[in-house]
Amino acid sequence: MTHQQYRTAEPDPDCQLCDGPTLLIRLFPPECRPTHRWLQCQVKRRNIPSVKVGHLRFYIPAVVRTALQERNTIKARATR
Predict the structure, then answer these.
(1) How far is residue 74's CA from residue 31's CA, in Å, rounded to a whole number?
(2) Is 67 exposed, middle or buried (0-12, 13-18, 19+ CB in 10 A)?
(3) 60: helix, coil or strand?
(4) 7-65 pLDDT, tens digit each
(5) Is position 78 within any domain?
């Protein structure tokens, strides 16, 4: 990829930094979307990774999605 192609390529929105409300909109459908307060509590418990820039906190949707899947997926037991 040349420098010009890199500059004009559309960035993947799933890999861009976003704020809390935007993260919730991208990850959850409206009928089961948690609140921003829930997100803040999960970050405080270190269940959801975030990037802190000064006093601002940002999220990478793909990384948060992976963290939620790893932490909250219930694995089925093998049956005999």
Answers:
(1) 22
(2) middle
(3) coil
(4) 666 677 778 999 999 999 999 999 999 999 999 999 999 999 999 999 999 999 999 99
(5) no
End-to-end CA distance of the chain: 52
Residue 1 resides in a domain: no
Residue 30 lies in a domain: yes
pLDDT in tens, 17-28: 999 999 999 999
Q: Work out the angle between the directed axes of helices 61-72 and 20-27 (0-180°, nearest 10).
A: 60
CB atoms within 10 A of CB 24: 20
Domain range holding 39? 10-72
Residue 73 tokens read as 């997926």
If residue 8 lies in a helix (H) or strand (E), which one and from where to where?
helix 3-8
Cβ contacts of 51 within 8 Å, gap of 6 or more: 17, 57, 58, 59, 60
- pTM score above 0.85: no
